[in-house]
Amino acid sequence: MRLKDKVAIITGGGGGMGRVAAQLFATAGAKIVVAEFSDAAGAETVDLVRQAGGEATFVKVDVSREADAKAMVDHALATYGRLDVLYNNAGIMPEADHSVIDTDVDTWDKVMAVNVRGVFLGCKYAIPAMAAGGSGSIINIASFVALLGCSVPQDAYTASKGALLALTRSLAVQFGPKGIRTNAICPGPVETPLLMDWLVKDEAAKQLRLARNPTGRFGKPEEIVYMAMYLASDESRWTNGAQLVVDGGISVNYF
User: Fold this and answer.
1) Catalytic residue among 157, 226, 230, 254
2) pLDDT in tens, 90-120
């Protein structure tokens, strides 16, 4: 099994890609800490993992709060005795996030608190735990919009994902010598509730995005998670500081 006995924290594990990650990681042998703000969603993911024969536990976390980030890592260590993977999946994309000229400061700060501070805090406490074990893998979920400009802007979200790429490089250089590799995945548009709820309401926006993707479709959550499984596994032990684009080719399509 690719992830046998590895302990993985998955933030935002209560739904979307986070839930799929918890399920697939568990089938590959990992022990999962579902870090999620919603009690009901987190518990449901744990139940799904256990029903499939996997091992998982839930911890309630607001990733933007330092005390919660520390408690999340402490929970992993107390429950499983080690930490091998931090999967920074939690993120938000509010409807009020537009261009810098018409996005309110509260929306900007909320996005940065979850999408950037949340990763900073998770890493702050996970990295020492990984260093104590001699190795680890940090997986940051960025976005293809961190690499491209967008004529339909979500500037807080875009800036937050660009920040993750810069942070990924810095952590890779700092902690690679300690056996801890840090990489980012840049997904294209993926069929998650976060995106689909928005596009279902706006058919024109949906068709515009589909037209620009050579595959003619949105990605599936598992198609991102399979890349994350590689990064979590020992197969990726010489992959460090990478930004891996999984977008169906949308970012290379010019017309």
Assistant:
1) 157
2) 999 998 999 999 999 999 999 999 999 999 9
Q: Answer yes or no: is 166 within a domain.
A: yes
- Please state whether the predicted TM-score (pTM) of the whole model is above 0.85: yes
Q: Domain range for residue 88?
A: 7-244
- Residue ranges, the chain, pLDDT below 50: none
Confirm whether 221 is domain-assigned. Answer: yes
* CATH number assigned to the domain comprising residue 228: 3.40.50.720
Let me know if residue 170 belongs to a domain: yes
pLDDT of residue 178: 97
| DSSP string across the chain | -TTTT-EEEEETTTSHHHHHHHHHHHHTT-EEEEEES-HHHHHHHHHHHHHTT-EEEEEE--TTSHHHHHHHHHHHHHHHS---EEEE------TT---TTT--HHHHHHHHIIIIIHHHHHHHHHHHHHHHHT-EEEEEE--GGGTS--SS--HHHHHHHHHHHHHHHHHHHHHGGGTEEEEEEEE-SB--HHHHHHHHT-HHHHHHHHHT-TTSSPBPHHHHHHHHHHHHSGGGTT--S-EEEESTTGGG---
Q: Is 157 a catalytic residue?
A: yes
pLDDT of residue 210: 80
